[in-house]
């Protein structure tokens, strides 16, 4: 399953309980900027141990997208919206 998780802009309290649960439970994340996603997780004291972060932008080439699709065939993952 692929989940889409919106993240707060400017106010740490604007995140949903469901988004926090997915950030804690899932181990694979696709995001525009992996460093920003890691900062967001640190802001909520969510451990990065065992988590994998993959960059996904409009510039991601087809071979990486194919690799990501193969990951999704076997694992649940999330796409984080940072804006």
Explain how this protein is built:
The protein is α/β, with parallel strands linked by helices and 83 residues long. It has a single domain, classed as Tetrapyrrole methylase, N-terminal domain (Cobalt-precorrin-4 Transmethylase, domain 1, 3-Layer(aba) Sandwich), CATH 3.40.1010. Helices cover 39% and strands 22% of the residues. Strands 1-4-2-3 form a four-stranded parallel sheet, with helices on one face. Strand 2, helix 2 (34-43) and strand 3 form a beta-alpha-beta unit. The model has no long low-confidence stretch (mean pLDDT 92).
Summarize the structure.
By secondary structure, the chain is α/β, with parallel strands linked by helices. The chain has helices spanning 17-25, 34-43, 62-74, and strands at residues 2-6, 28-31, 52-55, 77-81.
CATH-level-2 architecture: 3-Layer(aba) Sandwich
Total domains: 1
Supply the CATH class: Alpha Beta
Mean pLDDT: 92
H/E order of the elements?
A: EHEHEHE
Helix-residue proportion: 25-40%
Strand order of the largest sheet: 1-4-2-3
Total helices: the number is: 3
Distance N terminus to C terminus? 22 Å
Low-confidence stretches: none
CATH-defined fold name: Cobalt-precorrin-4 Transmethylase, domain 1
